[in-house]
Amino acid sequence: MIQRYYIECPVCRKVTVLRIQAGFLAWHPIRFNCGNCKISLYGEASFNAPNITLNMCRGKIINEVQNPNFLLSVSGELLCPKLISITSNDEIYSSMSPFIHATSLMGFDKYNEFKQYIINSLDYILKQQNHFIICNQLHFLKQDNYLKNELSYLPKDIYPLNNEVDLYRAIHFVNRQFYEIINKEQAKAIAIANLIFKEIDDYIQNNKKEFLNLIQYFDNVGLLDKWEYNIFQLSKQIIENFHKFIPIIGKKYYSQDINQLEQTYSINTISFEEIEPIYFKCYELLSDMLPILIAYNNLKYRNNFETMKPGIKFMKKDIKTITDYISVDSKGFRIDCIDGTEMFDNIVYNIFDRAVRNSIGHFNYEILTQDVFNQTILFKNLKNNNKNETRSLLKICISMWQMFIAINDVAEIIYQTKKTSYLTKGIIPTLKMQF
């Protein structure tokens, strides 16, 4: 079902016809720009079958006019055809709906799979969001007695809560439930978890002393705790904004890749201003955690977590140890050391877009002057304007989501590292080897 609304820009008075696709969501945000003066317009659609209600916070709902200026289809679940200038009123009535566009690229089976996945995710968030947040806050506040009460529903034969490492295992279970419900790439996640288990078992069997040195190196300076806390804060922000990300989560189900999709489709549930701080946090956190991947590579390939692979230099200085690597403030250098040639590189290899991050970090980008029909943002090169780059909002959103998934993959490495640190301190789990 499609319902049309006519939206008048409060500045230039040009009119955009919104074709709102009814779907399986109860509500969703709407974000777009005026095709003439380019200011941002936003509101929220809610659904109570068979009715669709639109509330605009910026932009005025008016009665139907004879010669509207622009046409945009919107959906809370699906990617939609881009904003266009209306050349004939026939376009208002003849354009395919987002649902038809999506099912033509997904097929009905994949669409139904996507629909059920999102419904399950939203149901989990509705029921478990507070539990997830409270448990983690109590964990970081070290309020163990309160935390035990929150986790008392867990089966005690699997998750006893008798000491610090028992509680840590239980928190990990809560966090993995959250990650697994919002991450459709389960095959990859399971493969990474199995890889970590296998590698750690090999280190314990064949290079235990050096593995324990790695654990103590990161644990003693509080890096593991810091990273886990930052992952929790980011995850909380993702939960709170989940509705805005639904169309990009569905990207996996389309038959086209991102380069093909961005030629025709847009996302109208989130603006660049909203995705910008989350993108930046994902980039900074993921790049901040690279040392633990480098350390595991060092241990696997050079039998010493400190020893970097040969030939690495920064400003003509040899980078020989993990301490040398961490001492370099340049995020670009840190990322360049991940070149895909070693096992743990593959979790994050080719996932960073430096042009976007640098422009955001230096507030050196332009939104409103760019092509609102294609939702492109200009990212400026501080040193050379000839190297300026553009990205579509859709590509930026998908890149952010990929970084968030990678962050949670690294979180599993951090967990396996930290839980072993409890053993080095003499804190033994009630159920041995149950991690």
How would you portray this structure in words?
The chain has helices spanning 90-94, 98-106, 108-141, 144-150, 164-182, 186-206, 208-220, 223-240, 242-249, 258-264, 272-288, 290-302, 322-327, 331-336, 354-361, 393-424; strands at residues 2-8, 15-21, 27-33, 40-48, 51-58, 60-62, 70-74, 80-81, 84-85, 265-266, 313-314, 317-318, 365-366, 376-379, 389-392. With 435 residues, it is an alpha+beta fold. It folds into two domains: 2-101, no CATH class; 110-424, no CATH class. The strands form five sheets. It has a five-stranded mixed β-sheet, with no helix packed on it. A three-stranded antiparallel β-sheet has the order 3-4-5, with no helix packed on it. Strands 13-14-15 form a three-stranded antiparallel β-sheet. α3 runs antiparallel to α5 and α8 (223-240) runs antiparallel to α11. It is globular, with a radius of gyration of 24 Å.
Summarize the model shown:
The protein has 435 residues and is of the alpha+beta class. Helix content is 51%, strand content 15%.
Instruction: Bin the helical content.
Output: 40-55%
Computed Rg: 24 Å
Q: N- to C-terminal separation?
A: 49 Å
Number of strands: 15
- The 3D shape can be described as globular
Largest sheet: 5 strands, mixed
Category from helices, strands and their pairing: alpha+beta
Number of helices: 16
Low-confidence stretches: none
Strand order of the largest sheet: 6-1-2-7-9
Q: Average the pLDDT over all residues and give the rounded result.
A: 91
